[in-house]
Design goal:
about 250 residues, alpha/beta, Rossmann fold, 5-stranded parallel beta sheet, 3-stranded antiparallel beta sheet, 11 helices, 8 strands, binds 2'-deoxycytidine-5'-monophosphate
């Protein structure tokens, strides 16, 4: 289809309708993985790339954040002593992402609750538990729908989608990430302090990179991108151009 926009006026939902009735083996549905450390901009970049391509979006960090939230609300210590209980909770959580990317746990909108720094730290804690990681695998694979998926996280390219045709490892200096996180929180009306953010972020990096199961590291076949001096638009353009190069007809 050379001009997909031709349906815009007469049948705007054409592709949604088409892809809802098309089927193919899961392995054939393309996945773009965007992994990297906390606050590297993965979330924003993944959402923009997904929008540009009309692909599904998987924010895998949100799943760990929801698990951390549910477990801490249940009064559980987020460590090995409760590993199996937290893993069972993760398997049964009534999680839903709506079209506006709001996150629901049952009938509660927890989009804001899971974005606090505390929720991020709790997510990082539960994510070190191997049984919790296994419990979330199927949930993550279930996001692989036509026409394609953009998956953001720590182990998308190394563990969950090892055969993805494009893996990007996005990073930026810790100072730069702390400043970005600061601006992001303030813009959402959440108060923040740069030096506390920097210390938290470095602690989280250390835990994410040094855990035994699925530690954060670039996949061997990933393309690395240092976004410290780049705008969001430049990073999105770079990822889309790499994707274009991987496409069968992309160079035409
Ligand atoms: O991307 P994020 O900040 O929302 O992730 C929160 C935490 O969840 C992060 O510190 C580590 C964990 N995580 C993970 O272990 N594996 C993923 N694929 C995504 C997140």
């Amino acid at each position: 289809i050379e001009d997909p926009k031709c349906v815009a006026k007469t049948f705007p939902d054409y592709f949604e309708a088409l892809f809802s009735i098309c089927e193919t083996e899961r392995e054939r549905i393309p996945v773009i993985c965007i992994d990297g450390p906390t606050a590297s901009g993965k979330g924003t970049i993944a959402a923009e790339v997904a929008k540009a391509l009309g692909y599904q979006l998987l924010d895998s960090g949100a799943l760990y954040r929801i698990t951390g939230l549910a477990a801490s609300r249940a009064g559980l210590a987020l460590d090995e002593s409760n590993e199996e209980t937290i893993a069972e909770m993760a398997l049964e959580m009534p999680v839903r992402f709506d079209a506006q990317q709001r996150v629901w746990l049952g009938d509660e909108d927890i989009s804001l609750a899971i974005r606090s720094e505390e929720a991020g730290m709790n997510a990082s804690r539960v994510s070190t538990l191997p049984a919790v990681r296994s419990a979330l695998v199927d949930l993550q694979l279930a996001f692989q729908h036509l026409p394609g998926l953009v998956a953001d996280g720590r182990d998308m390219g190394t563990v969950i989608f090892p055969h993805a045709p494009l893996k990007v490892y996005l990073w930026a200096s810790a100072q730069c990430r702390a400043e970005r996180r600061y601006k992001q929180l303030i813009s959402k009306g959440i108060s923040a302090n740069i030096s506390t953010l920097l210390a938290d972020l470095e602690a989280r990096d250390a835990r994410d990179m040094n855990r035994a199961t699925a530690p954060l590291k670039p996949a061997e076949d990933s393309l690395q991108l240092d976004s410290s001096q780049m705008t969001i638009e430049e990073v999105v353009a770079q990822v889309l151009s790499w994707w274009q190069e991987r496409q069968l007809f992309g160079r035409a």
